[in-house]
Amino acid sequence: MATKKVLLYLIKPSQYDDDGYVVRHWRGVLPSNTLACLAALTEDLIERKRLGDSWDIRLRLYDETVDKVPVSRICRSGRRRHSMTIVCLVGVQTNQFPRAADLARSFRRAGLTVMIGGFHVSGYLALLPEIPPDMQQLLDLGVTLVKGEVEETWGELLSDAVSGCLKPVYDFLQKKPDLYDKPIPVVRKKYLRKFVASNFGTLDCGRGCPFDCSFCTIINVQGRKMRFRSADCIADAIRRNYREQGVTFYFFTDDNFARNKNFGVIFDALIRLREIEHIPVQFMMQVDVQSWKIKDFISKASRAGCTNVFIGMESVNPDNLAAVGKSQNCVSEYHQLVQAYCDSNISTHVGYIIGFPHDTVDSVRRDLKFLMEEVCPDHASFFLLMPLPGSVDHFHMLKRGEWMHPDFNAYDSQHEVTVHPNLKHGSWIATYLEAWRTFYSLQHMKELLRRASPTNYWNNFFRYLWYKNSIQTEGRHPMMCGFLRMKCRTNVRPGYPILSRWDYYTLRLKELRDQFASMLRLLIEMEELWLQTRHPSEAERRVAEEIAKIRERYGQLKVSDFQAAFQRAKSHCPTLQVPSKLTLFWAKWSPLLVSDKVYTRADLDAFWNTVRQRWTERRIFHIPFFMVPLNFFRDVQLSLLFLFHMSRAL
Ligand code: B12
Ligand code: SF4
C-alpha cells in the first residue's frame, strides 16, 4: 500500500494588540513548553510507528509570537494529492483564543483538519459544560475541540484525524495522564535561536497543585493531585540537550515545584549531573510561599542549580488573600521566605496581583512600599486580576451575571476586564503601571543590585533590562513580550482596517523611531545602573585608587601618571598587566580611568542636557563646542564598555 504524507502543523497562536495587529517579536524571551510537549509526543509516535506504515508524518512547528505563520502556504498544502494537512492550534490561552479562532476559520475554509486545545478550551469546559456560542461556531465549521491533557491519547487523536473520523469534542479532563515515563518536551536549536538566549529550554517536571485559590485555573484543569515525571527521564533529557544542543538553562514550568513529591530525587539527579558529570545545568522554578519550610528543599535546589524562584505571593494584604482562598500565604513570614532563598543565592521573583477586593489606589501604594522595604524580593511581576475561564471566580461571576469584558483577547492581565468596587475604570490600570514604574525605578534597582550577591548580579541585571524594555518600550507585560516588535500590514484582526501602504509605512517608521529612541534611553539608564552598582575587580579598584591619589596631588594627569598608577596597583595585584604608553594615551580618556571611586555618567548627562537646553533656547554660541567631541568620545567608549561587559556576562 502506498504511504500517504501527513503534514502536521503545530501552531502556538499569539494575541492581537490593541490596534488589531498580531503580536510578534524579532526575538522572544520564553519558548513555549506546550509546543515542545506536543512535538515530543509526535516524534515519539513517529519513531515507534504507532500510526502504522501507511502514514508518513512530517511535523512543522510555528510559534506565532516569534514566527510569521504562512497561512496561505499551509492552506495550499491541503490541495496536494496523496497528502493530508492537519493543523493543531496548541496551548491556546484565553487571550489567544480569538486569534486561534480566526486561524481555525481560515484553515477550515481551505478544507483542512483543525483541532484546538489548551487552557482556554479546557478551563472553560471544565466548570461550564455547556458549549459557549463562540466555541459552538467553531464546532459548526468542523473544528475539533480538545479539553485536557493528551499524553496518553495523542496517538488516538492523530489516528482519528488521519482516518477522517475526528469527533467534534474530546474530553480527557477526567483521564489525567500519568507523566512518569512520558516523552520529555523536546528542545530544538532551530526554534531556540528565535529567542534571546538560545541555551534556554523548558520542561514540566510535574503538573497540578494541591491549593485552592479562587482565581486559579490550574487546579480545575490539571488537578489538585500532583503528578510527576521520572527523575531519570529528566536527567537523560538534560544530558542529551546539553550534548546535542548546548542547552544549559531550564524553566521548570511546574506551577508549584515545591509540591512535587519527587523533588528530592529530581534534585539529586541534577546534583549528580552538575557535580559528577560536570554538566553546568541551571534552572528557575515556581514555588509557593510555604516552600521555604520544606526540609532541605532550598539547600538542595541551590546545589541542583536553581538560580531563580517565582513565588505566588499575590498580595501583602491578608484580607485580600483570605478573600481569594489563598490561606497558605502568611504575610508575616514573607521576609523570612525571601531571605531563606537569598541565603542560598537564589533570586526571588514574586507574582503580585492588583485588583483584589480590598485594593484601593492608596492601599496598593502602601502595600507596594511594604513589599519593597519589608519583604525585599529581587523582582516582582504585576498582574491585573482577571476572571479566567476555568477559575472559580469566573464561574461565580458568570452565574451572578456580573459584567466581564466580552473580548477574550483582553484577558492578558494588562487590561481591565471587570468592574472593581474601589478602583475606577482607568485608575486600576494606572495603579498597575505605577507599580511597575516604582518597583523598577533606577533608585530601587540600585538598592536591589547592591544587595544582590555578585554571582547573581548579571542574572538580576538582565531581568531588569527585560522587564523595563517590555513595560517601557514595548508597552507589554514582560511575560508576553520579546525584543523588537514585528508587524505585518495585512495580518490584522477581522473588523480592523488594513491601512494603505503609505499610511502603514509612515506610521511604522514613526513607531520604530519612537521605539529606538525609547530603547536608547533605556540603555543609557541601564548603563548608569551598571556604573553605580557594578562590582569592579580588585585590580581595577586599586588602579582607580592610585589615579585618585595622583590626581589629588597634581591635578591634571599625564600618560606617565597613569602608567605609575598601574605600576603601584600591580604591587598589590601581580597579575595586572600594565598597558603600553600608546594604549594609555587613548585610555587616558576612558571615563572609568578619569572618574574616581563611584562611577556614574551624571557629568555626561549634565553636559548633554546643557547642550540640548542651549540649542533649544537658540543660544548656540554658549555651547562649549570643543567639549562636544570629547564627551561624545567618552560616551561612545562608555557604551562600548557597557555592551562588552554585558555580552561577556551573557
Ligand atoms: C510556563 C507558563 C507560562 C510561560 C510560558 C508559556 C508557554 N506557553 O510555555 C510564560 C511565563 C511566558 C507564561 C506567560 C503567560 N501565561 Co502562562 N503558564 C505557564 C504554565 C505555568 C505552564 C505551561 C505549560 O507548559 N504547561 C504544560 C503543557 C503541556 O500543558 P498545556 O499547555 O495545557 O498543554 C497540554 C494540553 O492542554 C493539551 N493541549 C494543548 N494544546 C493542544 C492542542 C491540541 C490540538 C491538542 C489535541 C491538545 C492540546 O496537550 C498538552 C499536553 O498534555 C501554565 C500553567 C500550566 N500548568 O499549564 C500557565 C498558564 C498557561 N499561563 C497563563 C497565563 C494567564 C499567562 C499570561 C497571560 C500571564 C501574563 N500576563 O503574563 C501570559 C501569556 C503569555 C503567552 N503569550 O503565552 C494561564 C492561562 C489561563 C488561560 N485560560 O488563559 C495559565 C494556565 C496559568 C494560570 N494562571 O491559570 N506562561
Ligand atoms: S498556589 Fe498557585 S497554582 Fe496553586 S492553586 Fe494557588 S494560584 Fe493555583
Provide an overview of this structure.
With 650 residues, this protein is an alpha/beta fold. It has 25 helices and 16 strands. The strands form four sheets. It has a six-stranded parallel beta sheet, sandwiched between helices. The structure holds cobalamin and iron/sulfur cluster. The site of cobalamin has 44 residues, from helix 1, strand 5 and helix 4.
Kindly, what is the distance between the CA atoms of the first and last residues, rounded to a whole number of angstroms? 53 Å
Mean pLDDT: 93
The helix tally amounts to: 25
What is the β-strand count?
Answer: 16
Structural class: alpha/beta
Ligands in the structure? cobalamin, iron/sulfur cluster
Layout of SSEs?
Blueprint (H helix, E strand, L loop, with lengths): L3 E9 L11 E4 L5 H15 L7 E9 L7 H7 L5 E7 L7 H13 L3 E5 L1 H9 L5 H8 L3 E4 L6 H9 L6 E3 L17 H4 L7 E4 L2 E2 L10 H4 L5 E2 L2 H15 L3 E4 L10 H13 L6 E6 L9 H8 L1 E9 L3 H6 L10 H10 L3 E8 L6 H15 L3 E6 L7 H9 L26 H13 L2 H10 L5 H18 L8 E4 L14 H33 L4 H17 L4 H14 L8 H7 L3 H4 L7 H15 L10 H23 L1
Parallel strand pairs: 1-3, 1-4, 4-5, 5-6, 6-7, 8-11, 11-12, 12-13, 13-14, 14-15
Antiparallel strand pairs: 2-16, 9-10
Helix pairs in contact: 9-10, 10-11, 14-16, 17-19, 18-19, 20-21
The site of cobalamin (B12) has 44 residues, from helix 1, strand 5 and helix 4.
Quick tags:
binds iron/sulfur cluster; globular; 16 strands; 6-stranded parallel beta sheet; alpha/beta
Brief digest:
This protein is α/β, with parallel strands linked by helices. It contains 25 helices and 16 strands.
